[in-house]
Amino acid sequence: MMKLSRFLNSNRNAVGKPTDVRDGSALHALTFQAGISTGGKSSIQDRVFAPYSVFKGKAALSVEPVLPTFSKFGSGNLRVDRRGSMMLTFLPAIGERKYDYEKRQKFALSATEVGSLISTGPKDSCEFFHDPSMLSSNAGQVRKNLSIKPHADGSGYFVSLSVVNNILKTTERFTVPVTTAEFTVLKTACSFALPHIMGWDRLTTPLPGTLASKLSKVDPQMPDLEWDK
Amino acid sequence: MMKLSRFLNSNRNAVGKPTDVRDGSALHALTFQAGISTGGKSSIQDRVFAPYSVFKGKAALSVEPVLPTFSKFGSGNLRVDRRGSMMLTFLPAIGERKYDYEKRQKFALSATEVGSLISTGPKDSCEFFHDPSMLSSNAGQVRKNLSIKPHADGSGYFVSLSVVNNILKTTERFTVPVTTAEFTVLKTACSFALPHIMGWDRLTTPLPGTLASKLSKVDPQMPDLEWDK
Amino acid sequence: MMKLSRFLNSNRNAVGKPTDVRDGSALHALTFQAGISTGGKSSIQDRVFAPYSVFKGKAALSVEPVLPTFSKFGSGNLRVDRRGSMMLTFLPAIGERKYDYEKRQKFALSATEVGSLISTGPKDSCEFFHDPSMLSSNAGQVRKNLSIKPHADGSGYFVSLSVVNNILKTTERFTVPVTTAEFTVLKTACSFALPHIMGWDRLTTPLPGTLASKLSKVDPQMPDLEWDK
Amino acid sequence: MMKLSRFLNSNRNAVGKPTDVRDGSALHALTFQAGISTGGKSSIQDRVFAPYSVFKGKAALSVEPVLPTFSKFGSGNLRVDRRGSMMLTFLPAIGERKYDYEKRQKFALSATEVGSLISTGPKDSCEFFHDPSMLSSNAGQVRKNLSIKPHADGSGYFVSLSVVNNILKTTERFTVPVTTAEFTVLKTACSFALPHIMGWDRLTTPLPGTLASKLSKVDPQMPDLEWDK
């Protein structure tokens, strides 16, 4: 708690650009509760928890890449099975520097939605709609709307998530003010993560002398075979 | 199919920036057919299929890096054997959300052509010509022309491929509208992939105490040896 | 010493943009003293010293990423234990090309502060305050202030650190003029380092057929599970 | 040779932006001769040759990163021994698509000089001077001058190297016109390579439970220890 307080304090002292308020112990709580909330199912080997979190007065925003999963087909080929995404998790504040993880809401940005975020300029805004039960009988019953709107003075953005649930008759809204510095971290980190959530970091060069490299000489995807048809 | 529908639907709902319409099952079909279409030749170990695909009304565009291959020479040196590229695959639509993989056409962007794509601004356009049978008796018989032209309102680009085959007396043309968000994904992913298709990700630092590091002290390419002549 | 002299010399010859004045032997001294100054505690296996250093007339600035540490929890999960940072080390000059490592002062930029640095334009300035003893009885006794201010002619920045210690009644101030080229190196290297100090380079894709990938099908963080609530 | 011809041909066809003229066989010759020209000394294990080459009418420019070497000190620590660089190699043309490797001249860009190149805008130019025998009795006898000047129409740059040798009474000058696309490849690839020539790609995170991670708790470079003095 000391650290967070210290950072919030230095935050007040900061000139123009607030400093990071992420806190080791908060991360601990966050990820520990995540472990619990899944009935132990999340205990995956080498699972790494390294969210980038922005803690503000009324809500916190935590961002973390979710990598794709692959499945095998043919003789040892891998195919993207479940696409990756950037997972945004919003938590409401329930006191000074306390956030209710049980009341969290998530929004998963696809690769192209990440492209929108990366290409958002100082004056731009963007908005996405997701419908969990689309095409089912419950279509339109639950609607999630993520919007990113610039501050009037260009000092950052408001990142808002609203979740309207017509079944439970509930409406939840989270708004987290994000500074230019924090948004730059998001853009830079998302640019880094994008090829990873696309699975491009798994592309490997065949080593000389291996079967793979021999076969690759007749690889139909090799450039020269562009000429085949 | 559900997922794609859902995304297309959310696509209609999207404000300003469409969301990703890539679909796991479509990827499946795409790569599975790819596996078939090569008579099994493509069954390379650890071959990864992770194309970034844009599905639109009249055609789909699928982009994937093709890494270089290396060959050995001297005592354990590696040299780029076949240069890498960014492979663009166009597929014509043959129904709602159905694309004919057999009628695909490919265009392989070289490193420098990728440089053109990356440096293409919101108002810029670029165009490339490839001739598969150049310098042969069939020179000019088959011509491929890829063009990237910006939308009038700056909301994205038209990516078009035309293939004129004077032998078969055929002309094929594919046009895929690409949003700013989708083009940002292409630029970001291509910037990530560029050093890989150039083979620069394979450059390795000699470890201390190894023969390599000892020899590297007299490596003719080391900076100080710039002074040799 | 020859090299440094040579570079300083070529520096004088340079037109518009000075060249790098980093020096192998200076690095040697710097890191060797670092090894000593910690009573051997810093002798960590595979510890790599590769600071980017800018040597100027009155002071030197050395920048190096400090990676996060992880701790285990649950069954094999990893959690960021100590967050990473970009460590700036200032050294006062005590003669021509001589710097006093014992009088060094450090300033650790958090991920968000790195975001500020990366988003600093040619005309922008930014400033950070740290208080080591915040919330303790000594709060406000020692104040560190890092400022980055652009040159009037846009040819670079002044990077200054002031340390006011009311207990020791001391005030130290370091100012290092940084050229646009040197600042570009800092921005580019910090953009590269940012995901690493965030721990995102440790995120791994579950391999097909492993327990991890099976469990990941029910991973609460997977995109589709965005829809769970 | 076919490929190169083909590319040169498509080059003539290109609209606005020329395509890559790099050629597998040319690379072969280039690297093979490199192997020879060093009396076999360059036969380092896992040495990879993957230059990015621009072949033009009067000269060719080949660019390749040279990674740093490390030496051990203390108990298993690594220190940058020889700094990395971007090595530019110029070759004069001695016929159509023929270049004289024996008459090559090299220029090694330091990290900061790479920073200059990366920050060079469409209208900017930059210039560097190196003196191999600086501070020796031969100081000023051999002077190397690399300049990058923009085309008047902003379509690219002229990259020129002049080498004046007052001892041999020789003056050599190479000028290679580089298109915007080719320069974008250089900037993108140099941005990728920069952290590698700085040795930052070798920084590693201590694994939990290892001696390293235990020691890192008292690592003098850890952020919190910024507060120590």
Automatic annotation (TrEMBL), chains A, B, C, D:
One Gene Ontology term of the molecular function aspect: single-stranded DNA binding
Example GO BP: regulation of DNA-templated transcription
InterPro entries listed in its UniProt record: ssDNA-bd_transcriptional_reg, Whirly
Keyword Transit peptide attached: yes
Keywords, alphabetical: Transit peptide
Record bears the keyword Repeat: no
Pfam family, one: Whirly
Regions annotated as coiled coil: none
Domain of life: Eukaryota
UniProt record similarity statement: Belongs to the Whirly family.
Protein's UniProt name: Uncharacterized protein
Species this chain originates from: Populus deltoides
